[in-house]
Structures are given as structure tokens and as C-alpha cells.
Amino acid sequence: MERHTLLPKRIYKGLVVLDVDGVLFKDIFLKRIVQSKGITRSLKMLLLGIKYFLDKITIDSLLVEGYRLAGTFDANKAQVTAEKIRRVTHIKETVEILRREGFYVSLISAGIPGFVLRNLSEEIGADHYTGIDIDMKGNSIEGSSISLISKIDIVETLLKDLNLRWEDVISVADDPNNVELLKRSGKGIGFNPSRRVRRYSDVVIEGNDFLEILPHIVPNENLKRKYRLSRFIWKREFFRKGIHIFGGLVALLARHHEISALLALGGIIVLYLLSELFRILGVSVVFLSYITKKAQRKRETRGIIFGPVLLGCGMLLTILIYDFRVYLPAILIVSVSDTLSALVGMRFGKTMLFGLKNRTLIGSTVFFLSACLILYFTVPLWLVLPAAVLSTLIEIIPYYNIDNFLIPLVTATFLNFSWGV
Q: Which residues lie across from 333 on neighbouring strands?
């Protein structure tokens, strides 16, 4: 086991343990090494990975068999391979802040050789690293002879050296090999985690910005505003509501190509649900998973995020049932008014409406006024006020994202029967 430690020269607030594969690295080092050995070995490695995530084999079996598939490989090429793996953003900045705040930062990987971790540790400024030992003859590495490690034993040793306890440990991990570590730690952070790890994490973070772990470790008053939790919540909400705006484009498309719009909307809903199922299992789907992770709220990390599904279904049914003159204002209200309400309420809202946690007086006022403006240009004048009041009342409903579904459908129904379209 290759281990490097900078002996502590001060008292530390805590120990931050960072997994590497799937957390700092957006891919798996061993998988990339085996891929260089040809398609047959790559497929065998893929099968091993599936068995591991389905709990059919242990992490030890995965690593032993995986490195056996890797065979003999060159150390320099292995290092180049590691350097080419995409990283999450702002790792070095995050580690620097953690160390400045009095935390000892350790990289521990059960699947990456120590010499690879050594370079990574130096690159990001970590205090300590431990990786697997592997036989080397010059620059030639024999993958069939590796020495497996126990993360629990390594952390136990570090705690003794640092005079800390398990309650002082913050672990950041993604795959099932880290479940016991997360359970013992004072705080376990699942970073783009698998389904099992999600269950044992105190905090779940999904995305590509490593700075997001900071508000869950460092006290809020010690962080600059740009690193605080409220900043990340605002960014996600802004991105999320940007998606709402595109709902108006769907309504305009449907005016000229209704079947195409309905098929596109239905297809997106199905693809999104599949993407969500894969996300819960810890598997990313290109583009769709990126959008989901960028838009999800803090409370939406444990299961499928149904908000976009409800929005899509609400728009789909509205277009399917009603005439363009009715569904255009209804969809524009859920797209534009709901977006403005959320962003303004989040930024400036102080007074909660009827004591509801996520409904502010200013947010609902903005919703009502913008709905009036949309209706003024799209429906008879006598329908503007009652339709705006109705849609605003629906927006206030506190149940999770149900307004996304009801606003277009109920507003369109009201306009249809009142207007006689």
C-alpha cells in the first residue's frame, strides 16, 4: 500500500476523505486502462462493473479480475491515462479552502495505484493519499499482482495520527465500496452517487462543481458569499426556470406543427424518465443527466424528480385537448409567470404567503401581474382578471410541483368554457 502523509503541525477541525474514481475523476481509471487492451477485454470489464453494481461480486473481486484483464502496462502511459480523465471542476480551489479552514484532506482510492494518486495529490494540494500497491519492474506494471486496501483501516490510522474521532470525519464518495465509510463518518456526502450510496448519505450532491461540498462542511459565516449554499440554490433555480421558458416555444411550434410538437414533447418526457431511472442507479445519460443535475433542487436528490414530467404532461394534455387560442396563454403563464414568480420571490421575497414555506407575497404578485399582461394580449379583456386570479391561486398550491401540471390545464379549461372557443 503506497501511503503519503504530511505529519500534522497543528490541531485539525476534521478529516475530509475524498474518493477519486467517480468523484474527482468523472470516469474509472481501471476501466480506461483495460479499454486500451482491446474490445474483448473492455466488454469483460463492463460485465464485471455491472455485476459489482448489482452486488453480484465484491469490490475485491472486481479489482482483482479487472487488473488481471489489464495485464502488463506501462507506468508512464498509465499516468497519461489518468491525466486525460476529465475531472469535476474547482477541485484545487475546494481543497485549498478546506485546508485553510482547518481540515485535513485525504485522497483514498481502493482502485487506483499510489503513484497515480501521488501526482493527483500534488496537483490539488491534498495532505495525504493512499492507493493500491502494484508490482513494478522499471516502468512496467504487472496488473495481476495488486495489494488491496481497507479504507476503514487507513482512516483509523489517520484519526490516531491527527487525534480526531470518527465524528470528525467527512467522507465524499459515490460507489458501494464506500458504504461502511459513510456510515461511520460524522457526515457522509454522496457525490453523483449510486443508488446504494444515496441511501447512506447525509447529503447528496449531483453535478460537476466540487465547490458544492463546501457549504456542507464549512460553517456558512466562514464562507464567501459565492461559496454559500444559497448561491448554488439560486444557480440551480435560475437554470431550472430557464427550462420553463422553453415551454412557450413548444406552444408556438404546436401552432404550425401540432403532431410534431406532441411527439417531441412525449419523446422528451419518456427520455427524461429513463434518464432519471439511470441517475438513481448512478449512471449518467449524455445531455439529459447534465440538465437534470443542473436543475435539481436540494430536496430532490433521493428519488425521481417529477417536476419536469408534470410540466410536460400538463402542456401535452393542454395542446392535445384545446385550441391554440386557449392553450397559448395557458402555457405562456406556466412558462413565463411561474419563472418570474420563483426567481423574484427567491431573490426578494421576505413575507411568506399564508405561512407557506416556498410562496412569497412578492413572488405571487409578480405571477399575477405577468399573467395579466400575457392574458391582455391573448384573450378578450373581460377574461383577463378572472383567468389571472385563477392561475395565481393554483400557483399558490403548496403540493410538490402540482402547479406545473394544473396551471396550463385548468387555465385552458376555464378559458375554453368561458370564451366558447
A: none
Closest CA to 94 of 107, 113, 78: 107
Torsion of CA 187, 192, 195, 198, to 10 degrees: 20
Distance CA 109, CA 150 (A): 9
d(CA 121, CA 99): 13
Delimit the domains of the chain by residue range.
2-227, 229-419
Pairwise CA distance, residues 239 & 108, whole Å:
34
Q: Do 255 and 324 contact (CB within 8 A), yes or no?
A: yes
Grid cell for residue 365: 404578485
Instruction: Write out the three cell numbers for 321.
Output: 385537448
Cβ atoms 149, 114 nearer than 8 A: no
Residues of the chain with pLDDT under 70: 1-9, 138, 143-144, 232-244, 279-304, 347, 349-350, 352-358, 398-400, 421
- Cα–Cα nearest to 317, from 354, 29, 326: 326
355 Ramachandran zone, left/alpha/beta (phi>0; psi -120 to 50): left
Residues contacting 255, CB < 8 A, separation 6+: 324, 328
Q: Are 31 and 49 in contact (CB under 8 A)?
A: yes
pLDDT digits (tens, 9 = 90+) for 367-419: 999 999 999 999 999 999 999 999 999 988 766 678 889 999 999 999 999 98
In this structure, is the dihedral angle defined by the CA atoms of residues 379, 382, 384 and 389, taken in order, positive or negative? Answer: negative
Contact of 69 with 42, CB cutoff 8 Å: no
CATH of domain 2-227: 3.40.50.1000
| DSSP assignment string, 222-258 | GS-GGGSHHHHHHHHHHHHHHHHHHHHHHHHHHHH-H
H-run or E-run covering 325: helix 324-332
In 3D, which of 146, 327, 330 has the Cα closest to residue 254? 327
| Three cell numbers written together for 255 | 401552432
Full-model pTM: 0.69
Query: What pLDDT does 286 receive?
Result: 55
Rounded Cα gap, residues 408 and 310, in angstroms: 11
Question: In a 10 Å sphere around its CB, with 0-12 CB exposed, 13-18 middle and 19+ buried, how is residue 358 labelled?
Answer: middle
